[in-house]
Design a protein that fits this description.
It is a single chain. The chain is mainly α and 122 residues long. It has ten helices and no strands. It is globular, with a radius of gyration of 16 Å.
Amino acid sequence: MHHPRQIHDDIPGTPLFDSRLARKGYALNRMCYSFNDAANRAAFLRDEDGYLERFALTPEQRDAVKSRQVLKMLNAGGNAYYLAKLAGIFGLDMQDIGAQQTGVSKAAFQARLVAQRDLAEG
């Protein structure tokens, strides 16, 4: 019998969000949750470094946020649902995130979505 982690380790761009990653990403996810409040989003934009410090992000998490790379944030323990709040601040939508995860341009990712829809509609 396969351990669940072994089954999902081979999905490129999709780290399994398990208890290990949840613990690792607690500070990052807590910060992202704070973006439910517009005042916090504004505070982040005014002083990004200060905001990251306020939540005691690890160096890996800080680098991931500063690089605007969602895949790095996922690997640093970020949960996709919380990261969506942060991605919105950066002007990214879910198709931008999907493109980053699959390593293609947004246009190529959108084309894949259309092709999948067309295939499903047969």
